[in-house]
C-alpha cells in the first residue's frame, strides 16, 4: 500500500505524543533530528582513507526529550521491532565507568554516544526516538540515530567540539557499542551534509567538498530490496582486515596510497581473494574522484557509467552484493533515460541508488516493478527522492 513519507514535523509530533504517553503531562524541552544518507559512489573506501560521495537524505531520525535531576536515563523508540522492547532504562554511573552494550540492541547506539560525548558527564534524561530511515536498509539508520542523539546531548549540556569531532565521536560509538568497525562516511555526512549537494569526503584529511546536485532535470531513485542487511556479522570486519593486510603487504599505510601498479607487482605475495578486495578499493577510490569531477561538469552519462562499474566491482571483486540488488540495478539500467544504478552502502542487502532523467521516472519505476514481479523476492520501491523535493513512497509489489 502506498503511504506518504513522514515529514520532520510529523515525526516530531509522533515522538511528542509518545513522550506524553510514557512520561505523563510534562512536555519535552527539546527536539532534534539528523539525516540518513545515500552513497552515490565510493563504497568500502572510507576505512581505506579514500574518497566517498554520499548525500544526506530527507529521511531522518528525531529525538525529543528532557533533562532530569538524577542520573537515570529512559529512552523509548517509536520503531516497531517485534523482537526487542521499545523502552530501555539505565543509570549513568557516578564513577564514570562506561556503559556496556547489551539489549535492546538499538539502545547501544545511545549508550555509545553517551560514552563518547565530548563534554562528560552527561546528565540524566528522558527521550523518545522516531525515525523515517528504514532499519537495516543501508541508508544509515544507526548513524542518523547516533548523530541525532549527540545533538540532543549538546542541547542538554553543550560541548566545545567542532562538527568533525562530533562525527568522529559518533563513529567511535558505532565501533564500541554498535559492533561495526565502520569508516567515517555515514556519521560525517549525517553531521555535515548540505541540502542540494552531495559531499565529496576525503576520508584521510577529513576535508569535504560540497558538489551541487540540484539539476531539475535529474532525479535520484532509491529502491529498497527489502533484504535486511546487518553489518554486525563477520563479513564487514573481514573485508576491513583483508584491506589492511593488502596494504601491509604492499608496504603502505592504507590502500589510499597504493596504485594498481603496486598491486600488480605484489600479486604473487597476495592470495586471490585479498588481491581482488584490494583491486576493488584502489579502483573505486579513483572512480569516486573521477565521478565527483563528472558530476561537477554535469557529465551524467559518464557518472552513470562509473556507478555501473562500481556495482560490478562490488559484486565480483568485493563480493558484498546479493541477487536482489543485482536484479534491481540491472532492471533500472534497461530503461532509457537512466544514467547509472548501483547498490549503495555496506551491502549484503539494503538499497540501490539510480541516477536518471526526471522525465524517465515513471517508466523506470514501472519497469522495475514489472521485472521484479516475476520473482518470489519481496521487493519494493521505498522512496523517490530528489534534492528538489520528496515524492511519496510507492507500495510493495
Ligand atoms: C557502511 C559503513 F558504516 C561505512 O563506513 C562504509 O564503510 C559503508 O558501509 C561502505 O561503503 O555503511
UniProtKB/TrEMBL annotation:
<dbReference type="GO" id="GO:0004335">
    <property type="term" value="F:galactokinase activity"/>
</dbReference>
<keyword id="KW-0460">Magnesium</keyword>
<protein>
    <submittedName>
        <fullName>Galactokinase 1</fullName>
    </submittedName>
</protein>
<dbReference type="InterPro" id="IPR000705">
    <property type="entry name" value="Galactokinase"/>
</dbReference>
<dbReference type="Pfam" id="PF08544">
    <property type="entry name" value="GHMP_kinases_C"/>
</dbReference>
<keyword id="KW-0418">Kinase</keyword>
<keyword id="KW-0067">ATP-binding</keyword>
<keyword id="KW-0547">Nucleotide-binding</keyword>
<dbReference type="InterPro" id="IPR006206">
    <property type="entry name" value="Mevalonate/galactokinase"/>
</dbReference>
<dbReference type="GO" id="GO:0005829">
    <property type="term" value="C:cytosol"/>
</dbReference>
<dbReference type="InterPro" id="IPR020568">
    <property type="entry name" value="Ribosomal_Su5_D2-typ_SF"/>
</dbReference>
<dbReference type="InterPro" id="IPR036554">
    <property type="entry name" value="GHMP_kinase_C_sf"/>
</dbReference>
<dbReference type="GO" id="GO:0005524">
    <property type="term" value="F:ATP binding"/>
</dbReference>
<dbReference type="GO" id="GO:0046872">
    <property type="term" value="F:metal ion binding"/>
</dbReference>
<dbReference type="InterPro" id="IPR014721">
    <property type="entry name" value="Ribsml_uS5_D2-typ_fold_subgr"/>
</dbReference>
<dbReference type="InterPro" id="IPR006203">
    <property type="entry name" value="GHMP_knse_ATP-bd_CS"/>
</dbReference>
<feature type="domain" description="GHMP kinase N-terminal">
    <location>
        <begin position="108"/>
        <end position="193"/>
    </location>
</feature>
<comment type="similarity">
    <text>Belongs to the GHMP kinase family. GalK subfamily.</text>
</comment>
<keyword id="KW-0808">Transferase</keyword>
<keyword id="KW-0119">Carbohydrate metabolism</keyword>
<dbReference type="Pfam" id="PF10509">
    <property type="entry name" value="GalKase_gal_bdg"/>
</dbReference>
<dbReference type="InterPro" id="IPR019539">
    <property type="entry name" value="GalKase_N"/>
</dbReference>
<dbReference type="InterPro" id="IPR006204">
    <property type="entry name" value="GHMP_kinase_N_dom"/>
</dbReference>
<dbReference type="InterPro" id="IPR013750">
    <property type="entry name" value="GHMP_kinase_C_dom"/>
</dbReference>
<dbReference type="InterPro" id="IPR019741">
    <property type="entry name" value="Galactokinase_CS"/>
</dbReference>
<dbReference type="GO" id="GO:0006012">
    <property type="term" value="P:galactose metabolic process"/>
</dbReference>
<keyword id="KW-0479">Metal-binding</keyword>
<dbReference type="Pfam" id="PF00288">
    <property type="entry name" value="GHMP_kinases_N"/>
</dbReference>
<feature type="domain" description="GHMP kinase C-terminal">
    <location>
        <begin position="291"/>
        <end position="356"/>
    </location>
</feature>
<feature type="domain" description="Galactokinase N-terminal">
    <location>
        <begin position="19"/>
        <end position="66"/>
    </location>
</feature>
Amino acid at each position: 500500500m502506498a503511504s506518504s513519507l513522514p515529514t520532520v514535523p510529523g515525526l516530531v509530533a509522533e515522538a511528542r505524543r509518545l513522550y506524553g504517553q510514557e512520561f505523563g503531562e510534562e512536555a519535552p524541552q527539546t527536539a532534534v533530528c539528523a539525516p540518513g544518507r545515500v552513497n552515490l559512489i565510493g563504497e568500502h573506501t572510507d576505512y581505506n582513507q579514500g574518497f566517498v560521495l554520499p548525500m544526506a537524505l530527507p529521511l531522518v531520525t528525531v529525538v525529543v526529550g528532557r533533562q532530569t535531576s538524577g542520573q537515570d536515563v529512559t529512552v523509548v523508540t517509536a520503531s516497531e521491532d517485534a523482537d526487542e522492547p521499545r523502552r530501555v532504562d539505565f543509570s549513568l554511573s557516578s564513577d564514570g565507568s562506561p556503559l556496556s552494550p547489551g539489549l535492546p540492541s538499538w539502545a547501544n547506539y545511545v549508550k555509545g554516544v553517551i560514552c563518547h560525548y565530548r563534554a562528560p558527564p552527561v546528565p540524566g534524561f528522558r527521550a523518545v526516538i522516531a525515525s523515517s530511515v528504514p532499519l537495516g536498509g543501508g541508508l544509515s539508520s544507526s548513524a542518523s540515530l547516533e548523530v541525532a542523539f549527540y545533538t540532543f546531548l549538546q542541547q542538554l549540556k553543550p560541548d566545545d567540539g567542532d562538527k568533525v569531532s562530533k562525527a568522529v565521536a559518533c563513529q567511535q560509538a558505532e565501533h564500541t557499542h554498535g559492533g561495526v568497525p565502520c569508516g567515517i562516511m555515514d556519521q560525517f555526512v549525517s553531521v555535515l551534509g548540505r541540502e542540494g549537494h552531495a559531499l565529496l569526503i576525503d576520508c584521510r584529511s577529513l576535508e569535504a567538498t560540497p558538489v551541487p546536485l540540484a539539476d531539475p532535470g535529474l532525479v535520484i531513485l532509491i529502491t529498497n530490496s527489502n533484504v535486511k542487511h546487518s553489518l554486525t556479522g563477520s563479513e564487514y570486519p573481514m573485508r576491513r582486515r583483508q584491506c589492511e593486510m593488502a596494504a601491509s603487504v604492499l608496504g603502505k599505510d592504507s590502500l589510499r596510497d597504493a596504485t594498481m601498479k603496486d598491486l600488480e607487482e605484489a600479486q604473487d605475495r597476495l592470495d586471490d581473494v585479498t588481491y581482488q578486495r584490494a583491486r576493488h578499493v584502489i579502483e573505486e577510490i579513483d572512480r569516486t574522484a573521477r565521478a565527483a569531477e563528472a558530476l561537477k561538469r554535469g557529465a551524467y552519462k559518464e557518472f552513470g557509467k562509473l556507478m555501473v562499474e562500481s556495482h560490478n566491482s562490488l559484486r565480483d571483486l568485493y563480493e558484498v552484493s546479493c541477487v536482489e540488488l543485482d536484479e534491481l540495478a540491472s532492471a533500472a539500467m534497461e530503461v532509457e533515460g537512466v544514467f547509472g544504478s548501483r547498490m549503495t552502502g555496506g551491502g549484503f542487502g539494503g538499497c540501490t541508488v539510480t541516477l536518471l532523467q526526471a522525465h524517465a521516472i515513471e517508466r523506470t519505476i514501472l519497469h522495475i516493478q514489472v521485472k521484479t514481479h516475476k520473482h518470489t523476492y519481496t521487493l519494493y520501491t521505498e522512496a523517490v527522492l530528489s534534492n528538489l523535493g520528496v515524492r511519496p513512497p510507492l507500495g510493495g509489489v
